[in-house]
Amino acid sequence: MSNINYIAKRSIVPVVFFISQSTVSASSVDNSFNDSTNDLSGLSANEWVYVTGFANTENNGWHQLLSDSTANKIIINTDTALVTEAAGNAVTLQGYLHGLNVSYDLDFDLQRYTPQPKEIKTTITAKGGNRSTLYDRTDNFYDCQTSYINESELPLWDEFFASVAAGEGFIFDAYGTSGTPNNPVSVEIDGAYAYQRVGTTGKFYISFRVKI
Protein backbone atom coordinates (compact mmCIF):
# COMPACT_ATOMS: atom_id res chain seq x y z
CA MET A 1 0.00 0.00 0.00
CA SER A 2 0.95 3.63 -0.54
CA ASN A 3 -0.29 6.89 0.93
CA ILE A 4 -0.80 10.52 -0.05
CA ASN A 5 -1.50 13.18 2.56
CA TYR A 6 -2.68 16.54 1.22
CA ILE A 7 -4.59 19.69 2.17
CA ALA A 8 -8.01 19.92 0.46
CA LYS A 9 -8.20 23.25 -1.36
CA ARG A 10 -10.15 22.85 -4.61
CA SER A 11 -12.82 20.63 -6.20
CA ILE A 12 -13.87 19.43 -2.75
CA VAL A 13 -16.24 16.48 -3.15
CA PRO A 14 -19.90 17.42 -2.50
CA VAL A 15 -22.44 15.01 -1.03
CA VAL A 16 -26.13 14.82 -1.86
CA PHE A 17 -27.30 17.42 0.62
CA PHE A 18 -28.52 20.93 -0.21
CA ILE A 19 -30.94 23.19 1.68
CA SER A 20 -31.79 26.78 0.81
CA GLN A 21 -34.59 28.08 3.05
CA SER A 22 -35.55 30.92 5.39
CA THR A 23 -36.62 28.43 8.08
CA VAL A 24 -33.10 27.49 9.28
CA SER A 25 -32.01 28.74 12.71
CA ALA A 26 -28.82 28.39 14.74
CA SER A 27 -28.47 27.55 18.45
CA SER A 28 -25.50 28.05 20.75
CA VAL A 29 -27.08 25.73 23.33
CA ASP A 30 -26.09 22.51 21.55
CA ASN A 31 -24.07 24.10 18.68
CA SER A 32 -26.64 23.17 16.07
CA PHE A 33 -28.55 24.26 13.00
CA ASN A 34 -32.28 23.57 13.21
CA ASP A 35 -35.28 23.49 10.89
CA SER A 36 -38.74 22.31 11.91
CA THR A 37 -40.05 22.51 8.33
CA ASN A 38 -37.40 20.91 6.10
CA ASP A 39 -35.64 17.58 6.45
CA LEU A 40 -32.00 18.05 7.50
CA SER A 41 -31.09 14.35 7.52
CA GLY A 42 -28.56 12.98 5.06
CA LEU A 43 -25.22 14.19 6.42
CA SER A 44 -22.92 11.83 8.31
CA ALA A 45 -20.65 12.43 11.29
CA ASN A 46 -17.32 14.06 10.30
CA GLU A 47 -18.70 15.30 6.99
CA TRP A 48 -18.86 19.04 6.40
CA VAL A 49 -21.52 21.63 5.65
CA TYR A 50 -20.83 25.00 4.04
CA VAL A 51 -23.26 27.63 5.30
CA THR A 52 -24.16 31.08 3.95
CA GLY A 53 -26.91 33.59 4.66
CA PHE A 54 -26.88 34.07 8.44
CA ALA A 55 -26.59 37.62 9.80
CA ASN A 56 -24.03 36.42 12.38
CA THR A 57 -20.88 35.64 10.41
CA GLU A 58 -19.81 33.06 13.01
CA ASN A 59 -22.63 30.84 11.76
CA ASN A 60 -21.48 30.99 8.13
CA GLY A 61 -18.59 29.12 6.53
CA TRP A 62 -17.31 25.56 6.94
CA HIS A 63 -18.55 23.40 9.83
CA GLN A 64 -17.81 19.74 10.57
CA LEU A 65 -20.58 17.51 11.90
CA LEU A 66 -20.28 16.00 15.37
CA SER A 67 -22.87 13.31 14.59
CA ASP A 68 -25.23 12.22 11.82
CA SER A 69 -27.80 14.89 11.03
CA THR A 70 -31.45 14.20 11.86
CA ALA A 71 -34.72 15.36 10.37
CA ASN A 72 -34.62 18.65 12.27
CA LYS A 73 -31.05 19.12 13.50
CA ILE A 74 -27.38 19.35 12.45
CA ILE A 75 -24.98 19.33 15.42
CA ILE A 76 -21.57 20.88 14.76
CA ASN A 77 -18.37 19.94 16.58
CA THR A 78 -16.95 22.41 19.07
CA ASP A 79 -14.11 23.60 16.83
CA THR A 80 -16.52 26.34 15.79
CA ALA A 81 -19.00 27.96 18.20
CA LEU A 82 -22.37 28.92 16.72
CA VAL A 83 -24.29 32.03 17.76
CA THR A 84 -28.01 31.74 18.50
CA GLU A 85 -29.94 33.24 15.59
CA ALA A 86 -33.63 32.92 14.74
CA ALA A 87 -34.85 31.77 11.34
CA GLY A 88 -35.80 34.38 8.79
CA ASN A 89 -32.78 34.95 6.57
CA ALA A 90 -32.32 33.01 3.34
CA VAL A 91 -29.81 30.39 4.54
CA THR A 92 -28.05 27.87 2.29
CA LEU A 93 -26.43 24.64 3.50
CA GLN A 94 -24.36 22.50 1.12
CA GLY A 95 -22.88 19.20 2.25
CA TYR A 96 -19.30 18.12 1.48
CA LEU A 97 -17.26 15.02 2.16
CA HIS A 98 -14.23 17.07 3.21
CA GLY A 99 -13.56 20.56 4.49
CA LEU A 100 -11.55 23.42 3.03
CA ASN A 101 -7.90 23.58 4.19
CA VAL A 102 -8.20 20.30 6.09
CA SER A 103 -5.64 17.47 5.81
CA TYR A 104 -6.73 14.15 4.25
CA ASP A 105 -5.20 10.80 3.34
CA LEU A 106 -5.46 8.67 0.22
CA ASP A 107 -4.36 5.06 0.71
CA PHE A 108 -3.96 3.08 -2.51
CA ASP A 109 -1.98 0.34 -4.22
CA LEU A 110 0.99 1.54 -6.26
CA GLN A 111 1.88 -0.49 -9.34
CA ARG A 112 4.82 1.54 -10.64
CA TYR A 113 7.28 3.80 -8.82
CA THR A 114 10.19 4.46 -11.15
CA PRO A 115 13.01 6.91 -10.35
CA GLN A 116 13.77 9.44 -13.10
CA PRO A 117 16.63 11.65 -11.84
CA LYS A 118 17.44 14.75 -13.88
CA GLU A 119 20.78 16.53 -13.68
CA ILE A 120 20.60 20.30 -13.84
CA LYS A 121 23.80 21.59 -15.41
CA THR A 122 25.08 24.11 -17.93
CA THR A 123 27.59 23.21 -20.61
CA ILE A 124 29.64 25.93 -22.32
CA THR A 125 31.58 25.29 -25.53
CA ALA A 126 34.42 27.72 -26.27
CA LYS A 127 35.28 28.85 -29.80
CA GLY A 128 38.20 26.44 -29.82
CA GLY A 129 35.90 23.52 -29.07
CA ASN A 130 36.79 23.06 -25.43
CA ARG A 131 33.78 22.33 -23.24
CA SER A 132 33.21 23.03 -19.59
CA THR A 133 30.22 21.94 -17.52
CA LEU A 134 28.82 23.66 -14.48
CA TYR A 135 26.87 21.17 -12.35
CA ASP A 136 24.06 22.69 -10.31
CA ARG A 137 22.05 19.84 -8.81
CA THR A 138 20.13 16.63 -9.47
CA ASP A 139 16.35 16.79 -9.22
CA ASN A 140 14.68 13.56 -8.15
CA PHE A 141 11.51 12.62 -10.04
CA TYR A 142 9.42 9.46 -9.76
CA ASP A 143 6.95 8.18 -12.35
CA CYS A 144 3.98 6.60 -10.56
CA GLN A 145 1.05 4.48 -11.61
CA THR A 146 -1.64 3.14 -9.31
CA SER A 147 -3.17 -0.29 -9.43
CA TYR A 148 -6.89 -0.48 -10.21
CA ILE A 149 -8.92 2.45 -8.87
CA ASN A 150 -12.71 2.12 -8.85
CA GLU A 151 -14.59 4.78 -10.82
CA SER A 152 -16.48 5.75 -7.66
CA GLU A 153 -13.15 6.86 -6.12
CA LEU A 154 -12.21 9.23 -8.95
CA PRO A 155 -13.84 12.32 -7.34
CA LEU A 156 -11.40 11.94 -4.44
CA TRP A 157 -8.50 11.89 -6.89
CA ASP A 158 -9.98 14.90 -8.71
CA GLU A 159 -10.00 16.71 -5.37
CA PHE A 160 -6.40 15.73 -4.66
CA PHE A 161 -5.02 16.76 -8.05
CA ALA A 162 -6.94 20.06 -8.00
CA SER A 163 -5.70 20.78 -4.48
CA VAL A 164 -2.03 20.51 -5.53
CA ALA A 165 -2.38 21.97 -9.03
CA ALA A 166 -0.75 25.29 -8.11
CA GLY A 167 2.42 23.64 -6.86
CA GLU A 168 1.21 22.94 -3.34
CA GLY A 169 3.38 20.35 -1.64
CA PHE A 170 2.05 17.13 -0.14
CA ILE A 171 3.35 14.04 1.65
CA PHE A 172 3.96 10.91 -0.42
CA ASP A 173 4.72 7.51 1.08
CA ALA A 174 5.35 4.86 -1.57
CA TYR A 175 5.63 1.98 0.91
CA GLY A 176 3.39 2.93 3.82
CA THR A 177 -0.17 3.82 4.76
CA SER A 178 -1.78 6.53 6.85
CA GLY A 179 -1.76 4.15 9.82
CA THR A 180 1.68 2.64 9.19
CA PRO A 181 4.05 5.16 7.58
CA ASN A 182 7.26 4.02 5.90
CA ASN A 183 9.59 6.80 4.75
CA PRO A 184 7.08 9.56 3.83
CA VAL A 185 8.63 12.45 1.85
CA SER A 186 7.54 15.94 0.83
CA VAL A 187 6.85 16.18 -2.91
CA GLU A 188 4.96 18.14 -5.52
CA ILE A 189 3.22 17.13 -8.75
CA ASP A 190 5.33 17.56 -11.88
CA GLY A 191 3.41 17.93 -15.14
CA ALA A 192 0.09 16.38 -16.07
CA TYR A 193 -1.67 13.34 -14.63
CA ALA A 194 -3.77 10.82 -16.57
CA TYR A 195 -6.69 8.45 -16.00
CA GLN A 196 -6.69 5.29 -18.12
CA ARG A 197 -9.80 3.10 -18.15
CA VAL A 198 -9.22 -0.65 -17.99
CA GLY A 199 -11.07 -1.94 -21.06
CA THR A 200 -14.78 -1.24 -20.65
CA THR A 201 -14.78 -1.77 -16.90
CA GLY A 202 -15.39 0.73 -14.12
CA LYS A 203 -11.72 0.58 -13.10
CA PHE A 204 -8.88 2.97 -13.92
CA TYR A 205 -5.13 3.30 -13.71
CA ILE A 206 -3.93 6.73 -12.61
CA SER A 207 -0.52 7.96 -13.74
CA PHE A 208 1.33 10.94 -12.32
CA ARG A 209 4.84 12.21 -11.66
CA VAL A 210 6.22 13.61 -8.42
CA LYS A 211 9.28 15.70 -7.69
CA ILE A 212 10.95 15.25 -4.33
Quick structural overview:
With 212 residues, the chain is mainly β. 5% of the residues lie in helices and 46% in strands.
How does this model look, in words?
The protein contains one helix and 18 strands. The protein has one helix at 154-163, and strands at residues 2-7, 14-21, 25-27, 32-34, 48-52, 61-64, 73-75, 91-96, 103-108, 110-115, 118-125, 131-139, 141-146, 149-150, 170-173, 185-189, 194-197, 203-211. Strands 1, 9, 10, 13, 14, 15, 16, 17 and 18 form a nine-stranded antiparallel β-sheet that branches. It has a four-stranded antiparallel β-sheet with strand order 2-8-5-6, with no helix packed on it. 22% of the residues are buried. The model has no long low-confidence stretch (mean pLDDT 94). The chain starts with a strand and ends with a strand. It is elongated and about 85 Å long. With 212 residues, it is mostly beta strands. It has two domains: 2-7 and 104-211, Beta Barrel (Elongation Factor Tu (Ef-tu), domain 3); 23-89, no CATH class. The longest helix is centred in the last third of the chain and has 10 residues, at 154-163.
Total of DSSP H or I helical runs spanning 4+ residues: 1
Q: Summarize the biggest pleated sheet.
A: 9 strands, antiparallel
CATH architecture of the largest domain: Beta Barrel
| Percentage of residues in strands | over 45%
CATH-assigned fold name of the largest domain: Elongation Factor Tu (Ef-tu), domain 3
Unreliable runs, pLDDT <50, ≥5 residues?
none
Terminal CA distance reads 19 Å
Total number of distinct structural domains: 2
Q: Please state the overall shape, judged from the principal axes of the Cα atoms.
A: elongated
What is the radius of gyration computed over CA atoms, rounded to a whole number of angstroms? 24 Å
Please report the first level of CATH classification, the CATH class of the largest domain.
Mainly Beta
Structural class by helix and strand composition: mainly beta
- According to DSSP, the number of beta strands is 18
